[in-house]
């Protein structure tokens, strides 16, 4: 049986993901937050973030400070993902495409009331 392994995410790969997929989806003036894993901390990534989000990104090496290990101020980790998972799996998932569509549908259905 052949096993397929996902490629290691390097700073270059992470930068491509940001430029091609993530940043184009962000509204104007967004404050971007990331963790401090090595691919997120590469010089090319930090330079891109400094240019794209001047004074508006949070992470290791950023101008905006954010206390480490602060679960009380990162509610997405403790609420939103559980909410999404519960709603995604509220119906039987048939295949990977169905799963992707359910995730997209649930994310798009999240209202401001859910987030406050």
UniProtKB/TrEMBL annotation:
GO terms for molecular function: nucleic acid binding. Gene3D superfamilies: Ribonuclease H-like superfamily/Ribonuclease H. InterPro entries: RNaseH_sf. This is Tc1-like transposase DDE domain-containing protein. It comes from Araneus ventricosus. The lineage of its organism: Eukaryota, Metazoa, Ecdysozoa, Arthropoda, Chelicerata.
